[in-house]
Q: What sequence folds into this?
DNA sequence: CTGTTAGCGCTTTCAT
DNA sequence: ATGAAAGCGCTAACAG
């Protein structure tokens, strides 16, 4: 429609100067009632949106943001989240932000506690958290609440915390999707083995619990009669896994279908391959490079992705817009659950090549 | 690492002024050999990337871009492509571009011919084409080639044309995906009915041919023994469809599985619903509102999306970066093929809420 | 309280 | 051929 409206246009319409309009737009105070009203009236009529990039170059202040997540390993889940975050910073290159990253060992509660305690003492304008341990995270959040520092969760959220927002998959739905997919490609009587991660020092991660529940509820609601075997799966003590797997495939006459609730499905796929166990249907989580490889080899049938880059990107974008413009934020942000098969995996990219 | 590098930094390092650096960066000429070499040497050492947003505000020139596609209807495929294109313009709000849109009736070759002839006479800096009819499109392209006007395809491409780039799904792979999905959820002996669009005045659209081939090849390669019934499907003469459907479901003892190669799967789904034909497995294309509704109702089992918004967005983004910066472009751009089911459709958003 | 001015990084114009 | 300067829309600092 009508041309793009600028601050100077508003100023003229309201009969004031640019400076005053800027003060009103950003609530900087020092504006007379009458001027404010005049400007607000104009603002209602025109559709003004401040241009974040131009704003960025003139903005003097810089922001310090801390990011804490489980350790990042190459081609794995958390790396994608970090990538998304960096991506957002590139996109908003004109905004001055200093990012500080602290990772912890997600299988060791003490590492997490220690890291979080350190973080809690630092100066910062905002915090982005990839939570794992419930109590530790809650503790950190409380301290942030006290200091009035905004924080956003990625990957999952914690019920009793009060984040500015969270970006996460709906893990319950994720579980039902896995149930639907696996049951649609196997015979009604096939057993299903579900692998879930166990950690030291904490009950099962929240994500796992939710997925498991979603899975079970789906089967019940759809009157699926498959026998479900729940199998613990340790990343820190892999020798136990061998044992479980051996038992599973040694004792069973019929090879079961397999669902892996964490991102390490590739380990199971590799075990099957090494032991020449064929024709097992598998559904796994997350587009790690190892999982993608197993998918391409035909070892995994469906892989479910949860847009980690998108999560990271939007967490940072949201935070920046909140810090700079006090832009109102949507608290709950459920990301897409992507279904990948051998055929479409090569086209999967999501944010990776996006300039955003 | 090292701080962000600006033109002035390069100028100082090369011992020249900003103006000269700018002239070199954008090949504007009027630069002495010695100055050019000095600057190029610096450029090799530093990592300079011109900031498109800042560049945008200072850039005087404006671009006129024409977009031509099949007619847009609410909630349908082409609307998403247009949305993506507008989205890109918003994102690059600082760049001055005038967009002119011309749509044609994709089921009427004369409408297409007429529209394209009109377009061919206009002044423009670039063109984005959603092609349908082979010869007509090729004609338009030739004229553009002569006038040295760059054009980009969205949705599909045309072999013998010379576009700057195209953004399209790999329709052949799309066909095999449909084959894989349908065969994985039905019994080996179930018949499969494939619906494909017919148009007046042209052989089948290229996309349909490719999908059909991908479908057939998959079945053959995987030794699927399902009987495949190929059924023409007309958007312009719906009464014939009723007849075909009646025959199909009237004569057959076993209800077949259904695959619809165009975006009108909802029509078949509605027919089934009205006639109380239950337990038919269906796989359809494109996330039109009608298809999404049918998916949610459980009438469609899998819906395949081809990121129309992404296609539009990137077509425009690519064009702008090419026009402004002469940025080298990747010609072949295959978009993602998304698999949607009842469970994950609600989280599907793709670009729609992206600021990108 | 408010208008004016300088400056962000970039392009463009205008002298030189 | 080249440097200096003005201007894009915005924020910040400074006089009044």
A:
């Amino acid at each position: 429609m009508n041309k793009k409206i600028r601050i100077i246009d508003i100023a003229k319409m309201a009969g004031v100067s640019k400076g005053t309009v800027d003060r009103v737009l950003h609530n900087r105070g020092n504006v007379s009632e009458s001027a404010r009203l005049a400007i607000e009236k104009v603002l209602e009529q025109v559709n003004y949106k401040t241009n974040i990039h131009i704003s960025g170059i003139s903005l003097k202040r810089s922001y310090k943001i801390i990011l804490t997540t489980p350790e990042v390993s190459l081609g794995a889940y958390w790396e994608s989240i970090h990538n998304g975050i960096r991506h957002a910073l590139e996109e908003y290159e004109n905004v001055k932000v200093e990012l500080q990253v602290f990772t912890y060992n997600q299988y060791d509660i003490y590492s997490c506690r220690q890291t979080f305690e350190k973080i809690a003492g630092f100066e910062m304008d905002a915090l982005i958290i990839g939570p794992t341990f419930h109590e530790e995270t809650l503790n950190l959040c409380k301290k942030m609440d006290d200091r009035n520092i905004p924080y956003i969760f990625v990957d999952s959220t914690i019920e009793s915390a009060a984040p500015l927002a969270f970006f996460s998959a709906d893990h319950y739905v994720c579980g039902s999707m896995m149930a639907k997919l696996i049951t649609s490609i196997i015979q009604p009587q096939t057993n299903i083995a579900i692998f879930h991660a166990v950690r030291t020092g904490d009950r099962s991660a929240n994500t796992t619990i939710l997925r498991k529940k979603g899975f079970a509820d789906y089967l019940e609601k759809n009157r699926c009669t498959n026998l479900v075997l729940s199998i613990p799966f340790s990343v820190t003590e892999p020798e136990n896994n061998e044992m479980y797997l051996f038992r599973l495939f040694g004792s069973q006459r019929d090879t079961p279908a397999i669902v892996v609730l964490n991102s390490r499905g590739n380990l199971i796929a590799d075990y099957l391959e090494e032991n020449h166990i064929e024709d097992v249907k598998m559904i796994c989580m997350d587009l790690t490079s190892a999982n993608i490889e197993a998918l391409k080899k035909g070892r995994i049938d469906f892989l479910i992705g949860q847009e980690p880059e998108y999560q990271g990107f939007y967490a940072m974008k949201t935070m920046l817009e909140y810090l700079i413009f006090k832009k109102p934020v949507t608290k709950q942000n459920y990301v897409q659950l992507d279904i990948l098969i051998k055929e479409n995996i090569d086209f999967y990219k999501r944010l990776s090549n996006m300039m955003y």
Summary: The first helix of chain B runs from residue 7 to 14.
